[in-house]
Amino acid sequence: MGQETSEKIGRLEREIEELKKENERLRRLLEEALRSAKRQAAPFSRRGPKAHPQKPGRKAGSQYGRRCRRPVPRSVDEVIDVPLPGQCPHCGGGVQEGSIVSQYQTEIPEPRVECIEFRIHVGCCRRCRRRVQGRHPRQTSDAIGSAASQLGPRALALATQLNKGLGLPYGKTAVVLEEAFGMRVSRGGLCQAMARMAHKAEPTYQGLVEQIRGSPSVTPDETGWRVGGQLWWMWAFSSSQLTVYAIQPGRGFEQAAAVLGANFAGFLVRDGWSVYRQFSQALHQTCLAHLLRRCREMILVAGKGEAEFPRTVQVILQQALQLRDRREQDQISDRGVAVALGRLQVRLDRRLQGHYRSPRNQRLANHLLRERDALFTFLNCPGLEATNWRAEQAIRPMVVTRKVWGGNRTTRGARTQSVLVSILQTCRQQLRSASSFLQTLVCSSQPETLDLTTTR
User: Fold this and answer.
1) What does the alpha-carbon distance between residue 366 and residue 361 come to, in Å, rounded to a whole number?
2) Quick one: pLDDT at residue 38?
3) What is the DSSP string of 192-257?
């Protein structure tokens, strides 16, 4: 056996050993990913507990944080005098009074269901002879006869916030109403009542759609949703003042344009889903958080020589975010930002011009080439977000709700869900009382557009 052959065998053995180690590492990562996907009891748990976690509770000294306490109530509804005991509870001796101090307690009043009877006057028109009946502002419906017993506006508003806002199923919402207030209501009754509320809110919802189409900047996102056991999609379109949800049977441009409008011409801060690029009149900003997460994952599983490209992309994107932060802190001028941005773009373009043997690196390069014009829009437009965090935050409550009760059984239920959660989320963004707005909505005699499209 010659020396050349021996060197070749040694080189191959070393390569085999490296490949075995790489295979073992990838196998462990795959096993961890598969285990994580099956953790139904704790879907948001991290891998393992920290070896030396921080001590729970407040920190001592200057790191204690903001000091605050429950404020004293502005008004007191009841004063209870608490006299001294007749003798000392420790030794049994006599007690001499020294002073009187106050303690305050904020309590929920004892639940009491209020039953109201509306004595509705019924008549007819002298001219057209049609039937006419009176209506009080506190009524939620004109129904009489077998449907004369209705839920009041406060009860309906609370049930809507529990079911649509907090994600409680109809059954648990009914349990809360009965346990807390002694109000018995069926799941079907709640479902029908919310459908009627959504019907009255339809014009207001359409007003929100028109408002989102005219917003200067919109952040969209979508997630899977079940309707009748079939895969639909929950879309969310969010701006700084309002959010519109729409449960639709597809994930394409047709569904996105049904809410946003095909000619949307504002800023579109979105992830890399190809559908969003079809809004040709919009100014695009792709989410840098998604790209940075992708780079971190690629570096984690990269083989020999594969980590250089995603690491370079990661550094460039992080430097772009740092450049934004420096401008916001007045540490760099607009001209300085433009010069630094040009250098970042040149560095990125040089890396994108190459051809990569790794399929993962080539896919990332192709994606960045498609998103090239949307990577640094936020540096050219001060104030524009660099990530789609706003839509991610809007989607999160819907994801939690989906984990609890899966979705909607009917398309009508999906429409009710879209309308009511849009109103609840918009009220939350505008710091409005959702309960008061829902009460006004349900007491309206006909569907009408209420004033939820203007800021406060």
Assistant:
1) 9
2) 56
3) HHHHHHHHHHHHHHHHHHHHHHT-SEEEEEEEEEEETTEEEEEEEEE-SS-EEEEEES--SHHHHH
Distance (Å, whole) CA 218 – CA 210: 13
Strand 283-286, strand 267-270: pairing: parallel
Packing angle between helix 359-370 and helix 308-328, nearest 10 degrees?
A: 30
Distance in angstroms (rounded) separating the CA atoms of residues 355 and 368: 13
Residues 6+ apart with CB under 8 A from 78: none
- Burial bucket for residue 234 (CB in 10 Å: 0-12, 13-18, 19+): buried
Give the model's pLDDT for residue 34.
66
The 8-class DSSP code of residue 118 comes to -
Q: Report the 10 Å Cβ neighbour count for 412.
A: 14
Cα Rg, the chain, nearest whole Å: 31
pTM of the model: 0.82
pLDDT tens track for 408-438: 999 999 999 999 999 999 999 999 999 999 9
3-state secondary structure of 301: helix
95 touches 87 (CB < 8 A) = yes
Structural tokens at position 219: 């952040």
Alpha-helix runs per DSSP H in 353-410: 359-370, 377-380, 389-405
pLDDT at 456: 45
Query: How large is the average pLDDT for residues 135-155?
Result: 90
| Measured CA distances, 248 to 34, 133, 276, 320, 425 (Å) | 30, 39, 16, 36, 19
The Cα diameter of the chain in Å comes to 118
Residue (of 250, 256, 248) closest to 219 by Cα position:
256
Provide CB contacts within 8 A for 209, sequence distance 6+.
244, 259
Which two structure tokens, joined as six digits, stand for 147?
């449907």
The whole-angstrom separation of Cα 315 and Cα 351 is 12
Structure tokens given for 356 = 């990569």
Alpha-carbon dihedral angle through residues 233, 234, 239, 242, given to the nearest 10 degrees: 150
Instruction: State percent of the chain over pLDDT 90.
Output: 68
Q: Which two tokens stand for residue 23?
A: 């295979």
Q: d(Cα 258, Cα 210) in Å, to the nearest integer?
A: 11
Q: Which residue has the tokens 């994606």?
A: 367
For 239-252, write each residue's pLDDT tens digit.
999 999 999 999 99
The dihedral sign for the CA sequence 26, 32, 34, 37: negative
CB 386 within 8 A of CB 169: no
Rounded to whole angstroms, what are the CA distances from 378 to 321, 325, 346, 381?
A: 9, 11, 17, 5
